[in-house]
Amino acid sequence: MIVAPSILSADFSRLAEEIQAIDKGGADWIHLDVMDGVFVPNITFGAPVVKHLRKTTEKPFDVHLMIIDPDRYIRDFADAGSNLITVHYEACTHLHRTVSEIKVHGCRAGVSLNPHTPVSVLEEILPFLDMVLIMSVNPGFGGQKFIESSAAKVAKLAEMKKVLRPELIIEVDGGVTDKNVKTLEEAGCNAVVAGSYVFGASSYADAIKSLK
Question: Which residues carry out catalysis?
Fold first, then answer.
């Protein structure tokens, strides 16, 4: 299981230290939630912050763009040091073009689905993707309760993966804890994002280990 702690739940006054702490604690990736206050009702940070944070760790940056018109910013986030860029299906008018643009700039490409969006919409684009991110909460805020039907959604995607893209990474984000990670793994998930579960723990290393 790939564990990608989300710095959305970290102490923003000491982000560099927080990233180094989860790096040392065994994080596989660093998950960065970029929010624009339009696609989601919250605002976080942009490419300049990502560029500065890139200096703090060599772990892959898993950048989740919860923004409208992401095409305008793909180059900026790629140049800032992103390794994997995920855009929302709901925010892209020409998704294949967006995915191609991510790859042109040397990053792996992911597509995220909101809770109400069925995995069937990805049938045509799946062969071109490196990852699909299933939102198991409504995007925009940390600390929300896990939507139980998400595991069944993962299982449907895992069936599509067998035929269309066997090497696909299936990531789940929202309310993931040691109580539901096994169910997600059995459904076909092989990467999880955890924010408050990790950063709210007394030991980041123990929290990360419990998800693995």
Answer: 33, 173
